[in-house]
Design brief:
single chain; 600 residues; mainly beta; Lipocalin; 3 domains; 6-stranded antiparallel beta sheet; 6 helices; 9% helix
Length: 600
């Protein structure tokens, strides 16, 4: 979820310190074994050293179940070989970074304070090679034959300056399921940024969310960045992205995505290991970046996508045919200002783009603000363009005041194509999206557009704080009945999953939640994902399947992969797998079936 962001340029020596954030108060029955995750700011490593460092009982990469009791006592960490670039340019630029982070732009705001952002289960973990897992509850359904991947931020280096949740290097957490047995693996997406910083031993590439606030800090960081480029420390042409947001499978390739860069092709080895193949530009036809939320038509197998940016055209639409071959760009010049356009939707004939109140304005930096911010005076719009348009001549915009859509759930056509329906969460407090996500409330709405009259009607489908909505993938672009959403408690933590029946809104527009599963005290998950029990059966019920997610217990430090019965009124857990390592909270996931894994 990293609009025009890469990761983070800050960080050089600060005194070694540890900041711990305990989880919420324990219920009396769970009192004896409180756990703490911690963030440790490391000392500057020497040129080539074997270092033995100390930390709290929860180390820099806490591993969930292996965490020790709450204590401020220290223990030895395993020694590790650290290779650090100590050339004169590196030393100079890192020293400037230290000055900027400590004196010009220290992490004062909560949204960019790593002590807050990386507390509890947001703190990073180490890579984990394929490791066998125990099924501790129930049994894994036979239709779960493949691998579930979840993407999310996991900073390679712990920050010594401002850090936003969206800034971390992408890490994939995959559970491979075969014959009822599970293997778990966590690996970084080996992006250009990750690779050069790992080789250097320190962060190099800056990030727009936490690195450019106010003119002085922005000018200072841009000067250091330019110096690093001129000194040959990195080449921005090779990409600055994180690939930390989501995944997509089309054209027989699996992609790790982040909207500030090109996709990265990844694959799964036979032993369950995750391998990064490399950055992919589709034979030189894809430029700069691509959305992290392409839409795949389940019938035609085409993928539809876009990119956006701070210079005209602010929006560019394109697609890939069923073989994964990119088709020509369609620039959209009728979007006249740069907008944070994270997601979109498709129907059988249209693509729908939400232009929201969050935009990109470098002028905001003059007043000490961020170049990405909310404009409460902006009138939000929905733009419709034919899926196979050659240009934007048929693009239509509809004003929908107060509709701020960051994630789209689904869209379809009715009345012979005269009506377009969009289902999506509306961010009611959009001004908090980047700074205080815990204050965000997302209300799932049904928006109906009459293409003949231009009238737009909308109404809420639930009063709950819901986001990360998913459907049965077979119903993308056609009318669906059921939606599965994460419950924000508060965002970005997900305390449970609910099932919505959209048909109820057609009767009396009442609350549409028909099933619910709350994970329990101190337990939080992520985006759910729906898996059909019989994906090749066209007569199967839409909700005949399972909902899966990773769930973490902040009291015990244990993470699990849970499988819920999508038809059950309680979304009953039918299987649970204990994971060998903690899974930090992240963003979006995807289940890839075995027959598709074999095509990678």
């Amino acid at each position: 979820m990293d609009s025009l962001s890469s990761s983070f340029i800050s960080m050089f020596p600060q005194p070694n310190s540890t900041v711990s954030h305990p989880p919420p108060p324990l219920p009396p029955s769970l009192h004896p074994a409180t756990k703490i995750f911690s963030v440790r700011i490391e000392e500057k490593p020497s040129a080539v050293t074997i270092t033995t460092t100390t930390t709290t009982t929860t180390t820099r990469r806490p591993s969930g179940p292996k965490m020790q009791k709450t204590s401020l006592s220290t223990k030895k960490r395993e020694s590790s070989l650290v290779l650090v670039d100590q050339s004169l340019p590196a030393t100079i630029f890192n020293a400037f970074d230290t000055i900027i982070n400590n004196f010009i732009d220290p992490p004062i705001r909560q949204s960019v304070d790593p002590k807050h952002v990386l507390s509890d289960n947001f703190s990073p973990v180490d890579e984990l090679p394929p490791t066998a897992c125990d099924v501790i509850d129930g049994s894994l359904p036979s239709c779960l034959d493949g691998a579930y991947f979840r993407n999310g931020p996991n900073p390679q280096f712990l920050p010594r300056g401002p850090y936003h949740l969206f800034d971390g290097d992408g890490m994939l957490h995959a559970i491979r399921i075969k014959n009822g047995k599970a293997t778990f693996c966590s690996r970084y997406v080996k992006t250009y940024k990750y690779t050069i910083e790992k080789e250097a031993g320190f962060p190099i590439i800056p990030n727009v969310f936490s690195g450019f606030n106010g003119m002085t800090a922005s000018a200072a960081r841009m000067a250091v960045t330019a110096g690093r480029v001129l000194a040959g420390q990195f080449n921005p042409v090779k990409g600055i992205g994180l690939a930390n947001t989501s995944l997509a499978f089309f054209g027989n390739k699996l992609y790790a995505l982040g909207e500030s860069d090109l996709p990265y092709v990844v694959k799964l080895a036979s032993n369950g290991d995750i391998i990064t193949v490399g950055r992919h530009d589709f034979d030189g036809k894809l430029f700069m970046s691509m959305t992290a939320h392409p839409k795949i038509d389940p019938v035609t197998k085409e993928a539809f996508a876009f990119r956006y940016g701070p210079v005209p055209p602010f929006l560019t639409f394109f697609r890939f045919n069923e073989n994964g071959e990119k088709q020509p760009d369609v620039p959209i010049f009728s979007m006249t200002s740069p907008s944070f356009l994270h997601d979109f939707a498709i129907t059988k004939n249209y693509a729908i783009f939400p232009e929201i109140q969050i935009g990109m304005s470098p002028m905001e930096m003059i007043g000490g603000g961020s170049p990405v911010s909310a404009d409460p005076g902006k009138v939000t719009r929905l733009g419709l363009i034919p899926r196979y348009a050659k240009d934007e001549s048929e693009m239509k915009w509809f004003e929908v005041p107060g509709l701020n859509v960051i994630h789209c759930i689904n869209a379809w056509e009715e009345d012979g194509g005269d009506t377009v329906v969009l289902v999506a969460p509306n961010i009611l407090s959009v001004e908090h999206t980047l700074e205080r996500m815990d204050l965000v409330h997302a209300s799932v709405e049904k928006v109906t557009i009459n293409l003949k009259t231009g009238m737009v009607f909308r109404h809420p489908l639930s009063t709950r704080n819901l986001d990360f909505g998913v459907i049965n993938p077979a119903f993308v672009a056609v009318k669906n009945r059921y939606v599965y959403c994460g419950v924000g408690d508060p965002m970005p933590k997900i305390s449970g999953v609910v099932k919505l029946d959209l048909s109820l809104s057609e009767v009396d527009r009442r609350e549409c939640i028909v099933a619910s599963r709350i994970f329990g005290p101190g337990c939080f998950g992520g985006e759910p994902f729906f898996l059909a029990r019989e994906p090749d059966n066209p007569d199967a019920d839409e909700d005949d399947g399972y909902v899966v997610s990773y769930v973490h217990n902040e009291y015990t430090g244990e993470s699990r992969f849970v499988v819920m019965d999508a038809k059950s009124p309680t979304l009953e857990i039918v299987a649970a797998v204990k994971l060998p390592q903690r899974v930090p909270y992240g963003f979006h996931g995807l289940f890839v079936r075995e027959n598709d894994i074999n095509k990678l």
